[in-house]
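Weekly modeling sync, notes
Attendees: S.R. (lead), two postdocs, one rotation student

Agenda item 3: backlog of single-chain predictions. S.R. asked that every request posted to the team notebook include the full sequence so nobody has to chase files. The rotation student volunteered to paste the first one in as an example of the format we agreed on. Action items at the bottom.

Example entry:
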Amino acid sequence: MSIDQLIATRLQSLRKTQGLSLEQLANNSGVSKAMISKIERQDSSPSASLLGRLAASLGVSLAQLLSEENPQPAPLRPRAEQEVWKDPDIGYLRRQVTAHEENGAPELVEITLPAGARVSYPGWHQQAYKQRLWMVEGTLEICYGDENYALAAGDALTFGVDLPVTFSNPGDQSCRYLLVMSDK
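Predicted structure, as returned to the notebook:
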């Protein structure tokens, strides 16, 4: 299954499981009903910011939109089996290193953000979770609510998704970082 098929299937499944119409999800997320419909029909590939708004409205992590449900993941997850998604607008690359597990186990995601790229997400108002970021290479600026952080390779930052957050790469080369997400 392609990543666009997976996003379409997961978005529609999560929306219907929560008993939401396209119009209700559009109102909750600020994403147009037409755009949500295009994503569910695989007529459009969403941007990272748009996916973030949908995930926040559904009260799920981005991983739940970008990976299959896997109640009992295998202990080994080869790189070739890790879902990779690329933002069609800015080239942001997201690799789901560990599978999303319904039991709330921590998730590990690798992000590559191109030079000059910026991604903003709204605050999650339901089922907010914690993130721990470790910079692998490059530089990254994070605006979390009213706080601003400048990170370089080797730096670590802990923050939630309860407030709006913006990730910006001010450098002239891509940066790469790892995110560990957990309920606690």
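Discussion: group reviewed the output briefly. The chain has a mean pLDDT of 90.
Action items: rotation student to repeat for the remaining queue; S.R. to check formatting next week.
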